[in-house]
Amino acid sequence: MTTAVATRPKMRVFPGSPDQVRQARNFVARVLAGFPAADDALLLASELVTNAIMHTASGAGGTFTITASRYGNRAWIAVRDGGGDKAPVIRPVSRDRESGFGLGLVDKLADRWGYDGDERGRVVWFEVSA
User: Fold this and answer.
1) How far apart are CA 20 and CA 27, in angstroms?
2) Burial label, 105 (beta-carbon count in 10 A; 0-12, 13-18, 19+)
3) CATH number of the domain where residue 51 is located
4) What is the DSSP string of 50-94?
């Protein structure tokens, strides 16, 4: 008989500065220790954190919050930011740009993802399975 590995959701607040991307990855890695698809989850979490810092009020002296949990063969990650005037969008791939593909990765690798919020605050989340 196998038992499902589950973690209660863990949450942590980070300063909205670029040097915190690594710290956020380390936090998610600890929560997802032993999860077979942890590498994908860490990549996607890094993308969402980078977006929060680059495109929302979080990166202008604010903070962002990560919530991470695991149940069986699924991991769920959410990044709450300080909000921004533009909703998250998937940009088409273009050879003319070197960045802007983060949500495209989320869309391709996550089983599900979404967002809610506005200029006062937004949460972007994804779920991956092993």
Assistant:
1) 10
2) middle
3) 3.30.565.10
4) HHHHHHSGGGTT-EEEEEEEEETTEEEEEEEE---SS---PPPP-
pLDDT in tens, the chain (130 residues): 445 667 789 999 999 999 999 999 999 999 999 999 999 999 999 999 999 999 999 999 999 999 999 998 999 999 999 999 888 888 766 566 555 668 888 999 999 999 999 999 999 999 999 9
- 84 closest CA partner among 49, 45, 56, 112: 56
Q: What is the CA radius of gyration of the chain?
A: 14
What's the predicted TM-score (pTM) here?
0.89
CA–CA separation, 69 vs 120, rounded Å? 25
- Whether 34 is covered by a domain: the verdict is yes
In a domain, 1, yes or no: no
Domain that holds residue 59: 6-129
And the tokens for 82? 């300080």
- How many domains, in total, are found in the chain? 1
